[in-house]
Amino acid sequence: MTITGVILAGGAGRRMGGVDKGLVELAGKPLARHVLDALAPQVDTVLVSANRNAVEYRKLGCAVVGDGEGEGGEDYRGPLAGMLGGMKKAATPLALFVPCDAPFLPTDLAARLRAAGGCDIAVAHDGERLQPVFCLLRTTLADSLAQFLADGGRKIELWFDRHNVRRVDFSDNPGGFANINSPADLARAEEKLKCHHG
Prior knowledge:
The chain is an alpha/beta fold. The protein has helices at 31-39, 54-58, 79-89, 109-115, 142-150, 156-160, 183-197; strands at 3-8, 25-26, 29-30, 45-49, 63-65, 94-99, 121-125, 130-138, 165-169. It is 31% helix and 22% strand.
């Protein structure tokens, strides 16, 4: 079964001063590019789910999909809206979702989530907490998700609870889920990359 990778880039970035986090530069490259470089070898095709700066995201070489009906502006419906946009656009049975601000994305994320098998949703657990925006979904769940959002649902875990979910243990690589929420996080990530390449 083929997989569409979807980079979720629709967040409001409030803790970063309202900037579009996927376009924030880390070591000279936008965060979304770091994520794409780690994700692309694991999947068959990659989409970016974004509700602003589509032109910038297209420069990554991916199709860009919005997250709903005329959304944008201040009305951020959260990552589930981005997931729905990605599931509707994906032409594959499975979609792997990751956030745009996780530059150390595990390079075996797709393989390990897929190995869970026999479930609707496989989601990463870093050993301490569930990482719900790092998940592999059957794209046939789009109608269920659309209904959940139409009913006012926003919390990922509440929607997950309606389906057969497997948690996949990534406690051997908790740093793979580190995301950049603040300028301090960005500075730490710069240091980490310097150590890697230094």
